[in-house]
Structure formats: C-alpha cells, structure tokens
Specification:
Layout (H helix, E strand, L loop, with lengths): L1 H19 L40 E5 L2 E6 L11 E4 L12 E4 L5 E5 L12 E5 L5 E5 L11
Parallel strand pairs: 3-4
Antiparallel strand pairs: 1-2, 2-3, 5-6, 6-7
Length: 152
C-alpha cells in the first residue's frame, strides 16, 4: 500500500510539473530565465527531446511561495538517494529529504489526505495518515465506513 501511495503522489507531482511548463517569454541570454530545455543554453535547447523543467547540473530545484521554500527537488545523490522531494510549510535552510517523499511541518499536524467524488473534500472527509503535533502516528478513516486492508 505504501508503494501505491508513493506512486500516486509522484504521478500527481509530475503531472503538476508538466502542466506548469511554459515557453519562456524572457531574454534567452538571461541566466535567471527558466527555459523548457533547462537553464543551460548549450548543447541543450528548447523543443525536441529536451522539453524539460529543471537544471542540467547537480543542484536542487527550490519552489517558493510568498518568499518561503515550500518544496525542494534534490539533484544530488546516486541510486535510491537521487531525486528525493521535500515538501513543507516552511522548509528550514539546508533541509535534506530522508525518503523519496519527505513531508515536513514546522508546527502542528502533518498529514496526507485522500478524497474522491464519493467522499467529498471537506475537513471531515476522506482517509488521512500522518503525525500529530506531538509526533504520534495517526491513521484516520474520516468517513462513516469501516476501513479495510486488502492484499494483492
């Protein structure tokens, strides 16, 4: 089940990155301008098989909102340590993801919630897994249904 959850979150994340790609409207010579071919001019370029979002060197990609680091995709590491993603309400400086997907919350509860059209998407709906502000692990079925575990 953990693999399925990780795969689902990864698919949603990658889909969001693909949706966010847009052609550059800035000066192609501007090194602070993100381009679809990455922010390395040669030998990579826009279009063709180089239609990517990211960098062409071993550095993280930081995603900020309101001046605060909310997500980092790590470029360093090899094998299972490469490509880890950290997400949080305010990722501390030099934060390093310790798992493929690492969620970090400075204060309060830290949860993942799953909903669909049947459950609705209100605060009292769906299925939730996470930790509370004291570090206690929680698994919550928020619907008025018995939870089930299935094999295979």
């Amino acid at each position: 089940m953990s693999k399925k959850i990780t795969m689902l979150i990864s698919a949603l994340f990658i889909g969001g990155l693909m949706y966010a790609q847009q052609n550059s409207t800035g000066n192609p010579g501007n090194s602070s301008d993100w381009r679809r071919g990455g922010n390395l001019i040669a030998p990579f370029g826009q279009g063709g098989s180089n239609n990517i979002f990211g960098t062409m060197w071993n550095s993280p990609i930081y995603t900020y909102t309101n001046g605060i680091n909310r997500m980092t995709i790590f470029g360093f590491g090899t094998g299972n340590n490469a490509g880890r993603v950290a997400m949080g309400n305010n990722l501390p400086a030099n934060f390093i993801a310790r798992s493929r997907l690492h969620l970090h919350q400075n204060f309060g509860n830290n949860n993942i919630r799953f909903t669909n059209n049947t459950t609705n998407a209100l605060a009292s709906d769906g299925f939730q897994i996470g930790i509370n502000k004291f570090g206690v692990a929680q698994v919550r079925q928020r619907e008025n249904l018995a939870p089930t575990l299935k094999k295979g």
